[in-house]
């Protein structure tokens, strides 16, 4: 048995397609599923309790789980970038903690 998967089925060579007699299409997740995906992706990560995953899911119509993973990875870098800019401006050691995560 051979199982193949792709995110780009239209790019597959016809010779390959002839050798794969069955095609199963797994569509993109709906809004409810997109809201659940972060709970799986981020289960071992420390996150803010106030993140509205349902709202984010509503903004990401047509996105796959992989697309959402990329969104959350990019979002994770924003505090790092902000901190580096804060440090670059000479603010280290002056005042309150930069990020209050509990």
Automatic annotation (TrEMBL):
Protein name: ATPase AAA-type core domain-containing protein
GO molecular function terms noted in the UniProt entry: ATP binding
InterPro entries assigned to the protein according to its UniProt record, in alphabetical order: Mito_OM_Translocase_MSP1, P-loop_NTPase
Domain of life: Eukaryota
Keywords: ATP-binding, Nucleotide-binding
Keyword ATP-binding assigned: yes
């Amino acid at each position: 048995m051979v199982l193949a998967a792709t995110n780009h089925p239209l790019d597959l060579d016809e010779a390959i397609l002839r050798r794969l007699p069955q095609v199963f299409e797994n569509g993109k997740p709906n809004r409810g599923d997109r809201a659940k995906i972060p709970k799986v992706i981020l289960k071992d990560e420390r996150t803010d309790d106030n993140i509205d995953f349902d709202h984010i899911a509503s903004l990401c119509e047509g996105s796959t789980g992989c697309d959402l993973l990329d969104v959350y990875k990019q979002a994770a870098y924003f505090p790092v970038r902000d901190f580096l800019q804060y440090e670059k401006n000479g603010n280290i050691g002056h005042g309150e903690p930069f990020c209050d995560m509990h």
